[in-house]
Amino acid sequence: MSKLKIIATIIVKPEFKEDVFNMLQTVTDATRKEEGNISYILHEDINNSSKVIILEEWKSQEAIDFHNQTEHFLILKTELGKKADSLTIDIIRASY
Predict the structure, then answer these.
(1) Whole-angstrom Cα distance, residue 47 to residue 26?
(2) Where are the alpha helices (DSSP H) in the chain?
């Protein structure tokens, strides 16, 4: 089974940018310690500072499912509902 990658794109409401970025740093630190996580890297769009992209790599769908139930992820998910204009998640895997 191939590794799975996630591309999460968040458009943060401008007034919450600093708060969300701090929260994302906390989640990143915790996520990187999860056994099933290979990498978890935050990116900021150079043309739109309200756009944050998280590139994630996971060992399996089970590792993603575990991550989605962690306290740090659930808190982030709740807060983003209030502080982001949009969130898109794409799960991909290499095919060639």
Answers:
(1) 24
(2) 17-31, 61-67, 71-83
The per-residue pLDDT of the chain, averaged, comes to: 95
CA dihedral 53→36→64→79, nearest 10 degrees, is: -50
Spatial separation of the C-alpha atoms in residues 87 and 53, rounded to whole Å? 10
State pLDDT tens for residues 8-21: 999 999 999 999 99
Quote the pLDDT of residue 62.
95
**How high is the pLDDT of residue 42?**
96
What are the CA-CA distances from residue 26 to residues 2, 4, 72, 91, 93 (Å)?
28, 22, 8, 22, 26
Tokens 């990116």: give the residue: 43
The whole model's pTM is what? Answer: 0.91
Residue 85 sits at φ, ψ, to 5 deg, of -80, -30
